[in-house]
Amino acid sequence: VDASGETTYKKTTSSTLKGAIQLGIGYTVGNLSSKPERDVLMQDFYVVESIFFPSEGSNLTPAHHFQDFRFKTYAPVAFRYFRELFGIRPDDYLYSLCNEPLIELSNPGASGSVFYVTSDDEFIIKTVMHKEAEFLQKLLPGYYMNLNQNPRTLLPKFYGLYCVQSGGKNIRVVVMNNVLPRVVKMHLKFDLKGSTYKRRASKKEKEKSLPTYKDLDFMQDMPEGLLLDSDTFGALVKTLQRDCLVLESFKIMDYSLLLGVHNIDQQERERQAEGAQSKADEKRPVAQKALYSTAMESIQGGAARGEAIETDDTMGGIPAVNGRGERLLLHIGIIDILQSYRFIKKLEHTWKALVHDGDTVSVHRPSFYAERFFKFMSSTVFRKSSSLKSSPSKKGR
Ligand code: ATP
Ligand code: CA
Ligand code: CA
């Protein structure tokens, strides 16, 4: 944050970064539309498109109020194919990212990355380190082979990788799916890893309006876990298991399950206390554009029962119940997967955490991490409730 109160990243102000991203993506998506659709070839993964944006404009680019910058698009044809796989039309992608303001997230992680969400809640933009961008490039062919086989997954969906070059600095950003729609009020938010080493929200974090709680907070505050009906539990566990296998195969570590909890009963109590109008007046967001992007779709809830998923009143959340019997809707996704073991071993904290957690055999680290993560999610966080009927989204209706 600079003197004027605006966030800066690598000496670039947030408004400059947002402007450059919007201009750059606008150009590159438009440019792509002139290239005929075709199958993705292996070499498409290694293409980098580069275009210079002088502030006075050029015959290819508009004039703008920022410093001159260069915009690079990694693997444009490959990412176009992936966006298509998730049902995102070029016009919608352009509109979401370039035509409406990008909103800076106020509660980012510890790494210093800046996060933006698009006005329609659809996409998250995250600045990533050089190593992470490089890793994503290497990961792409294999990662998307997995997504192609199985688009229903809780793994992040990457829709674009870009670099803004300005004033001698490189700022790399990824565009990915947004796990927590802002239109849904989250009463609780957790970032869970399955580790206990320093996994408690700080005092400062807890003072925020919506703190990001961690593993130890979850164990303390929700000792009964989150109860799911057996079909939903089975679908979720199966998805997590498969996703962990993919992450392990790429030697990825240090990822988290991001969990947003919307409490239906608490919401109703709050509404009554406020004496607010009926539910019908509530702001309804426009229909989600991306396929398989809600939590419920990601775990194949509907497909498992062979019926269309009812998302109208759940906003795609996974129905659950807490220890007090309150009805919940869960929004979940695996995040922060761009750290591979090769790179991570240099990170002091992670090394200490792993030793603390009892893993001292280095070659096993990614599998140790995946196994512990899966075990924590499938036994401590999410639990099967025998008393819950399947399809609780229709409950009381
Ligand atoms: P660190 O490496 O220190 O954990 P980071 O900068 O890599 O931090 P992340 O762990 O990726 O950050 O995310 C930080 C926070 O940003 C999350 O706790 C979450 O609140 C938000 N966030 C990240 N990715 C998403 C996403 N795809 N959808 C919604 N919110 C997200
Ligand atoms: Ca993280
Ligand atoms: Ca990180």
TrEMBL record:
One of its GO terms (biological process) is phosphatidylinositol metabolic process. Keywords: ATP-binding, Kinase, Lipid metabolism, Nucleotide-binding, Transferase. Residues 13-381 form the PIPK domain. The keyword Lipid metabolism applies. The keyword Nucleotide-binding applies. One of its GO terms (cellular component) is cytoplasm. GO terms for molecular function: 1-phosphatidylinositol-4-phosphate 5-kinase activity; ATP binding. This is Phosphatidylinositol-4-phosphate 5-kinase type 1 gamma. It comes from Rattus norvegicus (Rat).
